[in-house]
Amino acid sequence: MLLAGAIASPAYGSTPVSAIVQLVDAGAFNDAERAIDDALRSSSLSLEHRQAYEFERERMRRILLDFSLTAADAQARVRKQIPDLTDEEFATWDAAGLLESRVIDGKKLYFKRAPSNLFRLSAEARGRRANPAPFNDSPLEKPHAHHREVLAEAKRTGRGAVAPRRVRITQSISVKADAVPAGETIRAWIPYPRAIPGQQENIQFIDSRPAKHQIAPESTLQRTVYFEQAAVAAQPTQFSVTYELTIYGQHRQIDPDKVVPVNPSPDLALHLGERPPHIVFTEDLRKFSREVVGDEKNPYRIAQKLFDAVDRIPWAGALEYSTISNISDYALRAGHADCGQQTLLLMTLLRLNGIPARWQSGWIFSDGAYNNMHDWGWLYLAPYGWLPMDVTFGRMQAGEPALQNFYLGSFDAYRVVFNDDYSQPFVPAKQHFRSETVDLQRGEVEWRGGNLYFDRWDYDFKATLLPLPRDAPTATALP
Predict the structure, then answer these.
(1) What is the dihedral of CA 329, 374, 320, 386, to 10 degrees?
(2) DSSP-derived secondary structure letter, 369
(3) Residue 196 carries which DSSP code?
């Protein structure tokens, strides 16, 4: 399925799709609607271009779902945490760009998560909260006993894949009652892991609802389990899958002085260079890279500098990725970014500097109740090969250098991978637009009448740690 901004040249006589993308990004929705209507009247329009125009109309609808607050709405939500909030305070934070907003057809609208993001972005706002509460972050974002376990076992054994965890995962989708007419077939895709030697292995399917299902081939880079089920009037439609797998922690000991520029093979060349629309070497990005990298020539030290620079971009709840025409550019300009946005920005910067970089994502969890969707990546450094990186967990505040730098070269064993790349086709193929055009963590749903967006269904993820068998094998290979 086409992505935003993927098609540049339309049929003769209509506004190029690239120009429609720019109108939508500029908030000129009425102008974009008129241009789309004009383009779709052409009888010579190819199916590919027709879908691209129609997606821009859908993108506008999704943007309006994200930017659903007026100034009064946003201020009222902030006031729930700061009862004595003044108009001047709100205006000051707004003018500083701490409350994400967009002008759409002359009307200023605020991102629905802007009020909660404010407390992530502003220490002053956090200090004004009447009832401060900690953010619900992963316990592994700070120095943790598991990090020390990974480092110690890697040193003791000399292996790079260590400290495994066995986990049972249940993931589900619940389509809201009457989201489609009764009797219509709902098609659902739920993420499903693929075996990655040395990272996640021994995947065992346990159960599903409905029982009939289709698991995509293990070669599928965004792997799913697929279901069909008829809708019943006034009842939600439920889908779920349960499986078990073993996940390994990762550690590579790097000597920076031994790192040399990569001589790219055809396989590595796939992970270098631009990949529009989200990995583009814009002039702003080139300038940012020059300022960060300076005269450094060593690839590892370049990667460290870029990792630290992106890590300094504060995390905040994100817009839906399908609404963003260039995610790495957005992360560079917005003043904040979430995990996938930070990862794509870092990947783009690494590639610009001749360092291969690739995507991974899935869910993270813990020994307790914490779980969340998460994105990260890998970079390639010669002569060491592929190394893990999680710029969102970033550089930890720790007195020990190995712990401080853990997430540039090491991983915990509390993350399941669903995606070994982004924006990849499903098996079986989706017939309509995807709700998430980049990632695959919640799932996807459609019927013959079209895609069912996230507002039409709910999702859940549960991870339960299991005892590791006494005779559990060591990892078969390094990733």
Answers:
(1) 40
(2) S
(3) B
Q: What are the boundaries of each domain within the chain?
A: 17-66, 71-128, 145-249+420-466, 253-408
Find the range with the poorest average confidence among 112-116, 121-125, 129-133.
129-133
- Give the three-state DSSP class for 282: coil
Strands (E), 176-236: 185-191, 200-209, 214-215, 224-230
**pLDDT digit string (tens) for 355-373?**
999 999 999 999 988 999 9
8 Å CB contact between 374 and 415: yes
Distance CA 350, CA 303 (A): 7
Q: Amino acid identity of 298?
A: N
Residue with tokens 């068998």: 469
Q: Where are the alpha helices (DSSP H) in 230-326?
A: 266-269, 283-293, 299-311
How far is residue 59's CA from residue 65's CA, in Å, rounded to a whole number? Answer: 10
| Other beta carbons within 10 Å of 432 | 18
Would you say 254 and 376 are in contact if contact means Cβ atoms under 8 Å apart?
A: no
Q: What is the pLDDT of residues 132-176, one digit of tens each?
A: 888 989 999 999 999 999 999 999 999 999 999 999 999 999 999
CA-based end-to-end distance of the chain: 29
pLDDT of residue 472: 66
Q: Which residues pair with 201 in a beta bridge?
A: 246
Q: What is the CB neighbour count within 10 angstroms for residue 225?
A: 21
Rounded Cα gap, residues 349 and 286, in angstroms? 8
- Which ranges of 158-237 would DSSP assign to H, the alpha helix? none
Task: Give Cα 402 to chain centroid, integer Å.
Answer: 27
8-64 tens-digit pLDDT: 444 445 799 999 999 999 999 999 999 999 999 988 899 999 999 999 999 999 999
436: CB partners within 8 A, 6+ apart = 320, 321, 322, 442, 444
By 3-state DSSP, what share of the chain in percent is helix, strand and coil, each rounded to 5? 30, 25, 45
| Phi, psi (rounded to 5 degrees) for 90 | -60, -45
pLDDT at 219 over 80: yes
Q: What pTM was computed for the model?
A: 0.95
Question: Among the CATH numbers 3.10.620.30, 3.30.1390.10, 1.10.260.40, 2.60.40.770, which is that of 253-408?
Answer: 3.10.620.30
Is residue 310 a contact partner of residue 342, using CB atoms and an 8 Å limit?
yes
Query: Mind listing the pLDDT tens digit for each residue in 256-281?
Result: 999 999 998 999 999 999 999 999 99
The most distant pair of C-alpha atoms in the chain lies apart, rounded to whole Å, by 69
